[in-house]
Amino acid sequence: MEHSGTSGGALVDAEAQPRAERAAMQRQRLTMLVGADLHGSREGLAWFCAQATALKPDLLVFLGDFANDGPVSRIREVLREWRDLAPHCFVVPGNWDPREALHCLDVEAYDGLRHLHKSSAALAGYVFSGLGGSLPTPIGTTPLEMPEDSLVPPFAAHLPADVWLLHNPLRGFRDRIASGAHVGSEQLLGLLSEQEPPPLLVLSGHIHEAHGAESNGATTFVNPGSLQERRAAWITLDAGQINTEMLEG
User: Fold this and answer.
1) What domains sit in the chain, N to C, each tagged with a CATH number?
2) pTM of the model
3) Fewer Cβ in 10 A, N or C end of the chain?
4) Which string of b and e fits 139-174 if b means at least 16 CB within 10 Å?
5) Separation between Cα atoms, residue 166 and residue 202, nearest integer Å
6) What pLDDT shows up at residue 14?
Protein backbone atom coordinates (compact mmCIF):
# COMPACT_ATOMS: atom_id res chain seq x y z
CA MET A 1 0.00 0.00 0.00
CA GLU A 2 1.16 3.51 -0.82
CA HIS A 3 1.07 5.91 2.08
CA SER A 4 1.27 9.29 0.41
CA GLY A 5 -0.18 11.05 -2.58
CA THR A 6 0.79 13.89 -4.82
CA SER A 7 -0.89 17.25 -5.12
CA GLY A 8 -3.25 15.82 -7.73
CA GLY A 9 -3.14 18.95 -9.87
CA ALA A 10 -5.50 21.89 -10.05
CA LEU A 11 -9.27 21.56 -9.80
CA VAL A 12 -10.97 22.61 -13.04
CA ASP A 13 -14.63 23.32 -13.76
CA ALA A 14 -15.29 20.63 -16.36
CA GLU A 15 -18.68 22.15 -17.19
CA ALA A 16 -16.96 25.24 -18.60
CA GLN A 17 -14.46 23.35 -20.76
CA PRO A 18 -15.12 22.46 -24.40
CA ARG A 19 -15.28 18.70 -24.90
CA ALA A 20 -12.19 18.65 -27.14
CA GLU A 21 -10.19 20.53 -24.51
CA ARG A 22 -11.32 18.09 -21.82
CA ALA A 23 -10.24 15.13 -23.97
CA ALA A 24 -6.78 16.65 -24.47
CA MET A 25 -6.02 17.05 -20.76
CA GLN A 26 -2.85 15.27 -19.67
CA ARG A 27 -3.52 12.64 -17.03
CA GLN A 28 -1.44 12.66 -13.87
CA ARG A 29 -1.05 10.27 -10.98
CA LEU A 30 -3.95 10.61 -8.52
CA THR A 31 -4.63 8.78 -5.27
CA MET A 32 -8.15 8.48 -3.87
CA LEU A 33 -9.62 7.33 -0.59
CA VAL A 34 -13.23 6.33 -1.27
CA GLY A 35 -15.98 5.82 1.30
CA ALA A 36 -19.76 5.50 1.35
CA ASP A 37 -22.74 4.77 3.58
CA LEU A 38 -21.61 6.28 6.85
CA HIS A 39 -25.15 6.34 8.28
CA GLY A 40 -24.15 8.53 11.20
CA SER A 41 -21.56 6.11 12.59
CA ARG A 42 -19.05 8.01 14.72
CA GLU A 43 -16.81 4.94 14.84
CA GLY A 44 -16.86 4.69 11.06
CA LEU A 45 -16.10 8.39 10.72
CA ALA A 46 -13.15 8.17 13.11
CA TRP A 47 -11.77 5.15 11.24
CA PHE A 48 -12.12 6.86 7.83
CA CYS A 49 -10.41 10.00 9.11
CA ALA A 50 -7.58 7.88 10.50
CA GLN A 51 -7.16 6.21 7.10
CA ALA A 52 -7.01 9.61 5.40
CA THR A 53 -4.47 10.90 7.90
CA ALA A 54 -2.22 7.87 7.33
CA LEU A 55 -2.58 7.58 3.56
CA LYS A 56 -2.67 11.28 2.62
CA PRO A 57 -4.80 10.94 -0.54
CA ASP A 58 -4.93 13.59 -3.23
CA LEU A 59 -8.70 13.18 -3.32
CA LEU A 60 -11.23 12.04 -0.74
CA VAL A 61 -14.48 10.71 -2.25
CA PHE A 62 -17.77 10.07 -0.44
CA LEU A 63 -20.66 8.36 -2.25
CA GLY A 64 -23.57 9.31 -0.01
CA ASP A 65 -25.61 8.45 3.08
CA PHE A 66 -23.97 10.69 5.63
CA ALA A 67 -26.72 9.88 8.11
CA ASN A 68 -30.14 8.27 8.42
CA ASP A 69 -32.19 11.36 7.63
CA GLY A 70 -30.36 13.15 10.46
CA PRO A 71 -29.82 16.87 10.99
CA VAL A 72 -28.00 18.84 8.31
CA SER A 73 -25.76 20.28 11.01
CA ARG A 74 -24.17 16.85 11.44
CA ILE A 75 -23.40 16.66 7.71
CA ARG A 76 -21.79 20.09 7.91
CA GLU A 77 -19.58 18.92 10.79
CA VAL A 78 -18.44 15.88 8.79
CA LEU A 79 -17.62 17.96 5.71
CA ARG A 80 -15.57 20.44 7.71
CA GLU A 81 -13.61 17.59 9.26
CA TRP A 82 -12.92 16.03 5.86
CA ARG A 83 -11.88 19.33 4.31
CA ASP A 84 -8.63 19.23 6.29
CA LEU A 85 -7.77 15.64 5.32
CA ALA A 86 -7.07 15.99 1.58
CA PRO A 87 -6.46 18.78 -0.95
CA HIS A 88 -9.68 17.81 -2.75
CA CYS A 89 -12.95 16.21 -1.65
CA PHE A 90 -15.80 15.15 -3.99
CA VAL A 91 -19.18 14.14 -2.52
CA VAL A 92 -22.66 13.11 -3.63
CA PRO A 93 -25.71 12.55 -1.39
CA GLY A 94 -27.32 9.19 -0.69
CA ASN A 95 -30.99 8.25 -0.51
CA TRP A 96 -30.97 8.55 3.29
CA ASP A 97 -29.63 12.11 3.29
CA PRO A 98 -32.32 14.77 3.86
CA ARG A 99 -33.28 16.98 0.93
CA GLU A 100 -31.89 19.94 2.84
CA ALA A 101 -28.48 18.29 2.45
CA LEU A 102 -28.41 19.34 -1.21
CA HIS A 103 -28.27 23.00 -0.21
CA CYS A 104 -25.81 22.24 2.60
CA LEU A 105 -23.45 20.48 0.19
CA ASP A 106 -23.62 23.44 -2.19
CA VAL A 107 -22.86 25.92 0.60
CA GLU A 108 -19.91 23.87 1.84
CA ALA A 109 -18.40 23.54 -1.66
CA TYR A 110 -15.22 25.59 -1.25
CA ASP A 111 -11.53 25.04 -0.47
CA GLY A 112 -11.28 21.94 -2.65
CA LEU A 113 -14.63 20.41 -1.66
CA ARG A 114 -17.07 19.86 -4.54
CA HIS A 115 -20.68 18.71 -4.52
CA LEU A 116 -20.87 16.56 -7.68
CA HIS A 117 -24.56 15.56 -7.67
CA LYS A 118 -25.68 16.24 -11.26
CA SER A 119 -22.38 18.06 -11.81
CA SER A 120 -18.81 17.45 -12.92
CA ALA A 121 -15.24 18.56 -12.27
CA ALA A 122 -11.81 17.87 -13.74
CA LEU A 123 -8.81 16.97 -11.61
CA ALA A 124 -5.36 15.67 -12.61
CA GLY A 125 -6.52 15.27 -16.21
CA TYR A 126 -9.59 13.16 -15.33
CA VAL A 127 -13.22 14.27 -15.61
CA PHE A 128 -15.45 13.24 -12.70
CA SER A 129 -19.26 13.28 -12.93
CA GLY A 130 -21.63 12.46 -10.09
CA LEU A 131 -25.17 11.38 -9.28
CA GLY A 132 -26.61 10.98 -5.79
CA GLY A 133 -29.88 9.52 -4.54
CA SER A 134 -31.28 6.11 -5.39
CA LEU A 135 -34.02 4.17 -7.08
CA PRO A 136 -37.08 3.36 -4.93
CA THR A 137 -36.17 1.19 -1.95
CA PRO A 138 -38.21 -1.48 -0.11
CA ILE A 139 -38.69 1.11 2.64
CA GLY A 140 -40.17 3.50 0.10
CA THR A 141 -39.86 6.66 2.15
CA THR A 142 -36.16 7.61 2.23
CA PRO A 143 -35.66 11.30 1.36
CA LEU A 144 -33.73 11.04 -1.91
CA GLU A 145 -35.18 7.99 -3.63
CA MET A 146 -37.11 8.41 -6.87
CA PRO A 147 -38.17 6.56 -10.03
CA GLU A 148 -35.48 5.79 -12.56
CA ASP A 149 -36.94 8.18 -15.15
CA SER A 150 -36.48 11.04 -12.67
CA LEU A 151 -33.15 9.99 -11.17
CA VAL A 152 -30.95 9.14 -14.14
CA PRO A 153 -31.57 11.49 -17.12
CA PRO A 154 -29.92 14.59 -15.57
CA PHE A 155 -26.69 12.61 -15.21
CA ALA A 156 -26.45 12.08 -18.99
CA ALA A 157 -25.88 15.82 -19.48
CA HIS A 158 -22.57 15.51 -17.62
CA LEU A 159 -21.11 12.72 -19.73
CA PRO A 160 -18.70 11.62 -21.06
CA ALA A 161 -16.63 11.33 -17.92
CA ASP A 162 -13.59 9.28 -16.93
CA VAL A 163 -14.84 8.60 -13.41
CA TRP A 164 -18.48 8.17 -12.37
CA LEU A 165 -19.38 8.92 -8.74
CA LEU A 166 -22.72 7.25 -7.97
CA HIS A 167 -24.70 6.36 -4.90
CA ASN A 168 -26.93 3.90 -6.77
CA PRO A 169 -25.04 1.24 -8.77
CA LEU A 170 -25.57 0.18 -12.37
CA ARG A 171 -27.53 -2.99 -13.05
CA GLY A 172 -25.18 -5.97 -12.94
CA PHE A 173 -22.14 -4.30 -11.33
CA ARG A 174 -21.68 -4.30 -7.53
CA ASP A 175 -25.49 -4.30 -7.11
CA ARG A 176 -26.29 -7.80 -5.83
CA ILE A 177 -28.22 -7.92 -2.55
CA ALA A 178 -28.23 -10.79 -0.05
CA SER A 179 -31.01 -12.65 -1.89
CA GLY A 180 -28.85 -12.74 -5.03
CA ALA A 181 -31.03 -10.28 -6.96
CA HIS A 182 -29.47 -7.44 -8.96
CA VAL A 183 -31.04 -4.10 -8.04
CA GLY A 184 -28.94 -1.58 -9.98
CA SER A 185 -30.15 0.94 -12.54
CA GLU A 186 -30.93 -0.22 -16.08
CA GLN A 187 -30.73 3.34 -17.38
CA LEU A 188 -27.26 3.87 -15.92
CA LEU A 189 -26.21 0.63 -17.59
CA GLY A 190 -27.57 2.04 -20.83
CA LEU A 191 -25.52 5.23 -20.42
CA LEU A 192 -22.43 3.09 -19.85
CA SER A 193 -22.96 1.31 -23.17
CA GLU A 194 -23.44 4.64 -24.96
CA GLN A 195 -20.34 6.42 -23.66
CA GLU A 196 -17.35 6.21 -26.00
CA PRO A 197 -14.70 5.74 -24.84
CA PRO A 198 -16.16 4.09 -21.74
CA PRO A 199 -15.35 5.40 -18.26
CA LEU A 200 -12.17 4.18 -16.64
CA LEU A 201 -13.76 3.91 -13.21
CA VAL A 202 -17.31 3.64 -11.84
CA LEU A 203 -17.68 4.14 -8.08
CA SER A 204 -20.94 3.28 -6.32
CA GLY A 205 -22.28 2.58 -2.85
CA HIS A 206 -25.80 1.94 -1.49
CA ILE A 207 -25.62 -1.88 -1.56
CA HIS A 208 -23.47 -2.60 1.49
CA GLU A 209 -23.07 -6.31 0.85
CA ALA A 210 -21.82 -5.70 -2.72
CA HIS A 211 -18.48 -4.27 -1.61
CA GLY A 212 -15.53 -5.14 -3.80
CA ALA A 213 -14.02 -4.43 -7.21
CA GLU A 214 -14.38 -5.95 -10.67
CA SER A 215 -13.51 -5.06 -14.25
CA ASN A 216 -15.49 -5.32 -17.45
CA GLY A 217 -13.71 -4.30 -20.62
CA ALA A 218 -11.95 -0.99 -20.04
CA THR A 219 -13.97 -0.09 -16.93
CA THR A 220 -13.28 -0.90 -13.28
CA PHE A 221 -16.28 -0.96 -10.91
CA VAL A 222 -15.73 -0.39 -7.19
CA ASN A 223 -18.11 -0.44 -4.24
CA PRO A 224 -16.03 0.57 -1.19
CA GLY A 225 -18.49 -0.96 1.26
CA SER A 226 -20.09 0.78 4.21
CA LEU A 227 -18.12 3.06 6.49
CA GLN A 228 -20.58 1.93 9.14
CA GLU A 229 -18.76 -1.40 8.88
CA ARG A 230 -15.34 0.30 8.57
CA ARG A 231 -14.83 -0.49 4.91
CA ALA A 232 -13.35 1.77 2.22
CA ALA A 233 -11.25 1.66 -0.95
CA TRP A 234 -7.81 3.05 -1.79
CA ILE A 235 -7.49 3.71 -5.52
CA THR A 236 -4.57 4.96 -7.59
CA LEU A 237 -5.04 6.34 -11.10
CA ASP A 238 -1.77 6.60 -12.99
CA ALA A 239 -1.79 7.49 -16.70
CA GLY A 240 -5.11 5.72 -17.06
CA GLN A 241 -4.02 2.60 -15.14
CA ILE A 242 -6.04 1.71 -12.03
CA ASN A 243 -4.92 -0.02 -8.85
CA THR A 244 -7.53 -0.77 -6.19
CA GLU A 245 -7.09 -1.98 -2.63
CA MET A 246 -10.09 -2.72 -0.41
CA LEU A 247 -9.63 -1.53 3.17
CA GLU A 248 -11.19 -2.99 6.32
CA GLY A 249 -10.89 -1.90 9.95
Assistant:
1) 11-248 (3.60.21.10)
2) 0.92
3) N
4) eeebbbbeeeeebbeebeebebbbbbbbbbbbbebb
5) 8
6) 64
